Here is the input.
Amino acid sequence: MKRPALLVLPAALFLLAFFVIPLIDNGMRSFEDGDGGLTLSRYVQLMTDRFYLRVIGETVLLSAGVTVISALIGYPVAYFLVRKAGKWSGFVIFLLIAPLMTSIIMRTFGWQVLFARKGLVNNLLIDQLGLITRPLRVLNTPELVIAALVHVLVPFMVLSISSVLQGVDRRLEESAQMLGAGPFRTFWEVTFPLTLDGIGTGAILVFMIANGSFVTLILLGGGLQTLPLLIYQQFNTTRDFGMASAMSTILLVIAVFCLWLQLRLVRRRGA
Amino acid sequence: MTNLTRRTFLGAGTALGTSFVTGGLITGGLSRTAYAQSAEITVTAFGGVWEKAVRDCFVAPFEAKTHDKANVSLGDPAQWLAQVEANPARPPLDVLIMTPDLALSAAKAGLVDDFTVDKLPNLAKIPKELTDSVMGKGTIFDYGVGGITYNKKTVSNPPKSFAEFVDRVSSGEFVASVPSISYAVTPIMLIWAMAKALGGGVDNVDPFFKAMAKMKDNLVFWGSPNDFFNQLSSGEADLGVYFDGRTWNHYDSGATWIDFLNPEEGGALNGVAVQKPKNANPAAWAYLNEILDAGNQAKFAEILNYGVTNTDVVYSDKLKPRVTPWQKTSFPPYEQIAKVRNEWVDRWNREIGR
Here is the structure.
């Protein structure tokens, strides 16, 4: 009994030193008023000022939007990967994770090259095809930020769904079809409910990563203001570390709430 | 009281964890002691060509003359200042490269030593104003100018002033790229500089925000200097507010379509200050003296295309037309700006939003 506990000790100490203690320090800093006392003023400001409420809302909405789009794109891909790809499944997985193998800076620069005012897409549409006369403004729009995030995060959704889809008992689907259900009804009433757990896991992963995403937002802009951007600003421009701590605590609360949702989903399935 | 408790708690907890996980408490303590005995110092530099210039122009002569060692830590001023603030009794860095506003924060917090000619003979060759601007607790040794950089292929007749820049961008003649508020010196190089050029100043930045509102449909923002170059080279922007030295670096690297001009009102001086944290290794003084040396600074300027401050420096023929004398720039009132900087950032967030 003692040996397993010793095995996890290094990891536990590592987490204690580099996660738990800094996290507690960060939380305590958010309550310091600078004169040795305690204050709730930062949280009051963050939770009552319409500007900050809008930023929090924008952060959650962006993450939720990216999650929904990733699920809509990811489910068919996961279905194809598990049910149709056959010997090509390894190649499909490679294609899926390929975006993760390049630096995020290079990926972001790629979007800039493609969609700049005088980039490849606009040159094609104006000079080669003659479909438009003025360049499309795609860069620095929220839509492109969402596209860039989805591009990176879809693999997390696909892999989560496909691992669950792989475990679905095909005999249940065959039984439904023998009882008269068509392919769509079989999918909707049998297959899809059985893969909800995979969607849930993928959603949590995608949501949490999108929630803390920073580089894509700072490089592609888009006029979006999210908590990670403001946290960076507090550190880099205003040096208001207390406010940065309060913002990061709120970001953490959002992430913890998502984890709680995931646990609820798993427990419900277990029940 | 609370602060002490928190720091004590953090320090003890971190030490406990690191000592178990890496054995680092004892090793770290020993290595720091060893630095002091062998006069090994840690100096700072930005990445890229900056790092190379620091190694070639300052570290090499320092090591050759003193036989001490200088390790180069890469990062940015906000990070370095935070490192010193976290451990002022035993600062992990011996020489700081700072933006003037952060240098002032460090000076006011009593984190850095006074600069005197006794400790730094080459300080006598640095204009007094540049040392006074950081309360004598450091000095500005290198500077750039925040002016108008443009693509010669798309902008044949560039705006000569900030006022003309605003008018022509507002009219849709150009798409301009300006630094975003996440870039540390935006309050100085853009907000203050443009407000002043348009009739305002530290106490009145309304002209700047009105100008931004007028230009908003034809503006893009850069988050880091490389972004700006990408935007200009990809055609996303035609011109923008940028630094002279970086512009010439791009030009020398083959982007001969790029050009720079100092606007008629005078672009903001973006100084780079150097400081020594209190309790840092005294060997840092010798290194700092090398930074202020005329020969070393001339070499540094040649690599980076930025102006330097030792009055004995003679620029090469290539550099002479590129470097704007610091007296011809708009010298920012750093201390006053520091007092209102957070208000400006908040207003930017609410009115401009990116």
